[in-house]
Amino acid sequence: NLEEAVEIYGRILDIEEEVLGPDHVDLADTLQDLGLVRHKQGMLEETVALYSHALMIKQKRLGKMHAFNAGILNNLGYVLCMIGELDRAEAMYSKALVIKEENLGPTHASTSLTISNIAWLYCKQKEWDKSMQFYNRVMHIESERTGNSDGDPYIAKVLRDMARVRREEGKYEDAIGLYHRAINMLEKLYGQDLVSVASILNAIGLLRFKQGRLDDAMYCFSRGLTIHDRVNPEHPNTADMISNLAIVRKAQGDVEGALSDYRRCVQRYIAIHGSNHPRTQNAARQVRLLTWQKTAN
């Protein structure tokens, strides 16, 4: 119960401020915890205010370069990024990075995480080359840290993030190459029947569809769907992948195949979202349209 948590933290803050004073480190910790609750509630402006207050206290009591400040700065950067204040977010992440590099070292896992956050921020700012530079730093750190550049799940995640940058930049072939590297790494680690592999195949399929390479898109969606059907047929993404298959079949002129897929989508979406959800309604509309088209022909 988040509202109950807010009420409890409010009472704790009143007690701490009265007993310990308005700039005690324990008060800052409680402000930070309350900020986390407000974040979960989606009250992002208040979250920023609470984190900022906590940061001010800790900087005053512990010094600006204390390791504890890095976590608040990182959280502030994340929330500011969510509300679109990208320049302020960059400033927070940069300060967090300096503190982590000084206190934890340049190759620590937490340092790597902040570098990754900065990389994604640059992607949102459409500074593609800067984003890739920071992701390459993460790749180097993780390869050094794990001693294995060919078989680590976090490195596979970074490859997916790098692919997303290239995708946003419009460099689809580069993105697809990075996606395939991630797939190869994950399959080497865990085998072929992995939901995350299916998700990457779906991403590749969408890019191939945008390129007009319908057969390649069909292959990716079909392979991803096969994985979902074997591993977790009730997963919400299964219905989305069937929908993507239907879109490709429709583009290929396969009305019968597209109609069959959309009918499956309707049943899956009803089970997951209910009959009034936009995805259910859209799939049902496609069924009606294709049924009419089939009858007309």
TrEMBL record:
Source organism per UniProt: Octactis speculum
Domain of life: Eukaryota
Protein's name in the database: Kinesin light chain
UniProt KW keywords: Repeat, TPR repeat
Transmembrane segments annotated in the record for this chain: none
SMART domains named among the record's database cross-references: TPR
TPR repeat residues: 70-103, 156-189
SUPFAM superfamilies listed in its UniProt record: TPR-like
